[in-house]
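Minutes, methods subgroup
Present: GH (chair), OT, SY

1. OT presented the first of two proteins processed in the latest run. Sequence and structure tokens recorded below as shown on screen.
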Amino acid sequence: MDVMAVRTFVAVVDAGQFQEAAVDLSVTPQAVSKRIAALEKELGVRLLRRDARGARLTIDGQAFLPHARAFLQAAERAITSVRPGHRALRVDVIGRRLSLAGLLRDFHRAHPEIELDVVTLFDSDTAVAAVRDGTIDATFRALTMPGLQLPRVVETTPVFDEPLHLFTGPGHEFANARAVTPAQLAGRRIWMPGNLPGTEWSAYYDEFAATYGIVVDSVGPDFGIEPLLDTIAGSTTLATFVSEQTPLVWPVGHDLRRIPVTDPTPLYPHSLVWHVDNHHPSLAALRRHLTTAYPGRPDGGVWVPEWSRSERSAPLVNRQTEGDGRAERDRSAGGPRLTTSGRAVSAASPAPERTRA
């Protein structure tokens, strides 16, 4: 049904005359007559009768009028829902208990006028496909070389490098240490039952472990964060990794310890991922907020995987386009494209259902 024809019908009813409706709609009286005639032909009934006093509703017109008004209201809501700046910005944070959700909360505090639709997608492939297809506006992910290439319509930029802590019970050999180095962890058993082969967080810890001779034990089952904390609290040999800003709560009796890892500090790299043709103004605001807050990665004293260093070496080139200010990646530079591999959660970012220590 033609929205403009229905709008014209309601305008004639409200004005009482075709001439007045034409003025209200900024069209000619002939255009009004043609629209009403087309609507009546489509419905197969007469809606209006014209006489010396103007336009009067027929009995069919009276029956149609309330539905016509509801139709126009629904059409306006549908248009508003996709009008730039009116639709809520939909962002995937992997899990609501993660530091990434905290990043988005910080953005909301800075921009309370922007409506957000927060979703959690566990695996990276699903999240990137959702960005590509326009199901979500953005996602936070750690990007890895092994696996599928990112679609060319998807762009990324680093937004948060999260330091890791060693997490132990009170009886562990490092429980009272102010800090530990990766070299001190060589040969030590780090229990991470949520590390699944082929996932990006597994790729991160595999490279970290290989670099420093750390033993990452992923033997499960993975029952979630609470059972993991229970096990770590009671062990003198098991430890795990947690991120600096991931909030955790445990019983007082557990006396668990979070110990910074330094010299170098391992950083788990988070990037924002979005579609190059997404012109939602709130997405531009989110990107500005995150990139402004991101201090950049230190040149020394930290450790990141090789694939993260590749990401850093291929920065976004901010070509400000008319009205949308989107950034495009300069693909003329040499070097491989960034990729994803499997489900995207890090120990720095425990999953909503699976827990990586």
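2. SY then presented the second protein from the same run.
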Amino acid sequence: MPRPNLIRRDTTADIPEVDAASGVKPSDPDSPRYLPDFSSPDYLFRFLFVAGIITVVVVLSRYTVFSDSAVTDSLLIAGFAVTVAVLSFVALKIAAQPISDMSFTAGVVTAFLIILVVSALATELFIWLLHVLGRNADRWPADHFGILIRTLLITAVVAIFVLRYSMINARVEVESESQQDDRLQALQSRIRPHFMFNSLNSVASLIRSEPEIAEKALEDLADVFRVMLQDARKMVPITVEGELARQYLEIEKIRLGERLSVRWIASNVPRSALIPSLTIQPLVENAVYHGIEPSSNGGMIKVNLWSEGETLKIAITNPLPERQQKNHRPGNNMALDNVRERLERHFGGRAVLENGEKDGYYDVRIQIPVVRG
């Protein structure tokens, strides 16, 4: 379902007033209200669905036996309902931009009036067609005004229902998406304490003996933290993401020394390719923490990047430790789950993240579509 073009309205009262005498809030402020994007094709299907429901209800309430005339009338009712639905969608689509620029109340009233006007015009059109087709002898039937009023009343009730449902649905969508974004952002911003403290301790030990290396390490550390605290939803060039992972690994090399070695392999990777921010770094951090750090002999982390057609592939491999250290906390897949959710958010079912153990090595593989910046 397309994301609604949502506009917050009436938010000036976000801070509730407090009665000076009693110190009690008069009332809680209204929650932000949203105008749906009426240009979305999704609304055409909603209108057609409602038109079908109305047709069935009207036909069943008017006829108990389906004769030839009842079938003909049913087709006319269905044609009228579909005409109102389609014309209402077209009119709202045309007016979508002006409506989105209005206040919440003005936008809702405008959309409501557009539907009523469309219904009135469609009613007059069908009355004329029935006269042309010989169904009505008079150009203006005796109950012409009553037909118009009844049609507008039914349309008003249906329009209120559809608009109300659309606003509730729009609000649920944006709040659900906002909650998911907040959760992913919170996960991404959660820096492992051991990495921060160990890195600072490693840098502190170099300040007197090798100040230039310490300064470079602090710059790398600042870059890593800065990216970790940024918006995790954005896409970045793969060269930037690769450089961030390199900076992180250089910091860890200060602490782990010769126990950590890294091999980068890049083949046929478009330099303009974009990937979600912090896709590689959390995975190489996992490789260091769960593969290299617990091992007495250390090992090599391999980062392989290549493309096949319009698919970008990433593979990160690390050796498994000989045995788990007692003071080493086992993984809870937080980084993997975080990366997997963000890949699904960007690419849907086209993104694949697989992980597993084989022959003493732990392997994480990613496949995503090539997105060029």
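Chair's summary of item 2: The longest helix spans residues 144-189.
Next meeting: continue with the remaining queue.
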